[in-house]
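This part of the workshop introduces the protein records we will be handling. A record pairs a protein's sequence with a compact description of its fold. As an example, a complete record with its sequence and its structure tokens follows.

_____
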Amino acid sequence: MVVTEVLQFADRLVFAETGKHLDDIQKAVVKGVWQGESYEKIAQECHRSESRVRDVGYKLWQILSERLEEDVNKSNFRATIERLNITSSKNISVVNHQNFKFCSQNINQQNIPEPTSEVDGKFQKAYIDLGIAPEITHFEGRREELEKLSEYILNQPTRLMAVLGLSGNGKTTLVKRFIDLHSPQFDAVIWKSLKFPKVLTHLLHDILASFSQ
């Protein structure tokens, strides 16, 4: 994983958590720590005081820890990023057709109204949180699977869906492609990772806080 990919991934995490992109000092910290440099060395390279760089680094690790829901610091930053296998999930391409299994749970349509993005004849802006979602660089085929997803989600009162299949056959890519095609039809689209959650209630609180207004 090259430093450019690390910077892009860190920027997406920070933006998803704070609504702000990495500034120059934060970028220097990410780059320097990834390359095994000390705060003193990083400070020299970006022409800042060592205390300033340490302070920026401390706040940056806090942000990443909150977003990833695990402890991130200068010592384990590189190991954490490598463990998450960002390279394999950030840019994904699919060309082969694979078999998927779709599991869905239906609900009584009379009890829960269907969501709509239209209010009084006007479309309201949807809430989109795809801060850590992969970017699809190439997608081919999968028409049947996309049609199944559309049928279950858009035309049936489906509350919960699971897309199951062998590792590496493009489940994440399929779901992200569906989102790219249909996100304007939803009031909200939120992409979260359950890979390293501390407590499920923390994740739910993060989601609900997004709709506090």
Summary: Strands lie at 91-94, 101-106, 118-119, 122-123, 127-129, 135-139, 158-164, 188-190. Confidence is low (pLDDT under 50) at residues 86-98, 107-123.
